[in-house]
Amino acid sequence: MSHSTVFDKSLAGAEKGLSGRGFSRRGFLKSGGIAAAGLAASTGFIPAALAQSNRVERVGLQLYTLRKELAADFDGTLARVAALGYKEMEFAGYYGRSATQVRDALDANGMTSPAAHIQWSAIRDDLNGEIERAVGIGQRYVVIPYLQENERTLDHYKRLVDTLNTAGEACRDAGLKMAYHNHNFEFDTVDGVVPYDMLLAQTDADLVDMELDLFWISYAGVDPLHYIEQHPGRFSMLHVKDLSADGKMVAVGEGAIDFASIFARAKTGGFTHYFVEHDNPVDAFESVTTSIAAVNSLRF
After folding, report:
1. Parallel, antiparallel, or unpaired for β 273-276 and 249-250?
2. Parallel, antiparallel, or unpaired for β 141-144 and 112-117?
3. Whole-angstrom Cα distance, residue 179 to residue 165?
4. Which residues lie across from 210 on neighbouring strands?
5. How far apart are CA 17 and CA 4, in angstroms?
6. Across the chain, where does the E strand assignment appear?
7. For 231-263, what is the HEC assignment?
8. What is the pLDDT of residues 216-264, one digit of tens each?
9. Maximum Cα interatomic distance, the chain, rounded to a whole number of Å
10. Which of 136, 128, 201 is nearest to 167 (CA)?
11. Closest alpha carbon to 204 in 178, 238, 173, 236
């Protein structure tokens, strides 16, 4: 995938654009829909207000986090992930494996793959092939994950809407559903339009779901609860990623995102899958180990 430079480029671009609008990330974390509940999750201390019966039953992982490890040892990496307790894999590339080989590896570890990130260009060039692969693996969602910098014009967003709706029809016929995953740039106004609002308004809700990346929407200075409440049922998948007070991406539980409050909106949001991710971890296995422990400790 072309994720390799996403984190650094998006972070730098967001810093520049948001500072020009007088954005204060620290102020947002304190006053918006983000609160310092992550620490509670990582320590196991759950305030009485959060001591509810609901929890994430099947914690997922976006495997982009472990791209280096998968490239070196695909089967061994999946086995280690399974041993940590992860149940659902969201792929970002298959490392030369066929759909049958991928499904066999999942079955061997008692895991499933509900979704995969597939680049927009691949959807345009070989939609049928991507659908066939997804069906073979047993997936439910095909997710467009990212737009290149030269694709972030209003005209490109209009084309993206067309792709999502058209591909959504083909996916529906195969028992799948299209989806789109956000970064921060979709919340920057382009020619008077907030692209994320346009995507929500102009894609068919019956054909297209949204995968809400909690780090990137929060980094953009936007309260995720606002979108969850304003667009009920659109967010079938979450990327569970934490944001520190100084704007860094950190393991879940090491930052300030109030995941319990967000997860508590499951019925409104439509959440069915929760994928842990870190775009650029120093130690990937340490990151995913810390993150699953934090998610498992959450009650909402």
Report:
1. unpaired
2. parallel
3. 10
4. 180
5. 22
6. 59-62, 88-91, 112-117, 141-144, 177-181, 208-213, 237-240, 242-243, 249-250, 273-276
7. CCCCCCEEEECEECCCCCEECCCCCCCCHHHHH
8. 999 999 999 999 999 999 999 999 999 999 999 999 999 999 999 999 9
9. 52
10. 128
11. 178
Cα(162)–Cα(156) distance, integer angstroms: 10
Q: Of 130, 129, 155, 128, give the one whose Cα is nearest residue 145.
A: 130
6-297 adopts what CATH topology?
TIM Barrel (3.20.20)
For residue 139, count other CB atoms closer than 10 A to its CB: 25
Structure tokens that stand for 109 in this block:
């570890």
Could you tell me the CA-to-CA distances from 261 to 3, 57, 71, 223 in Å, in that order?
29, 17, 36, 12
Going 254 to 86 to 180 to 262, the CA torsion angle's sign is negative
Dihedral sign (CA 34, 36, 41, 45) = negative
Encode pLDDT of 6-43 as tens digits: 444 555 554 444 443 334 454 445 444 454 444 444 44
Q: Give the C-alpha separation, 62 to 230, whole Å.
A: 26
What is the value of pTM for the model shown? 0.87
The rounded distance, in Å, linking the Cα atoms of 236 and 83 is 26
Report the distance separating Cα 98 and Cα 254, nearest Å: 37
Q: CA angle 212-214-220, nearest 5°? A: 100
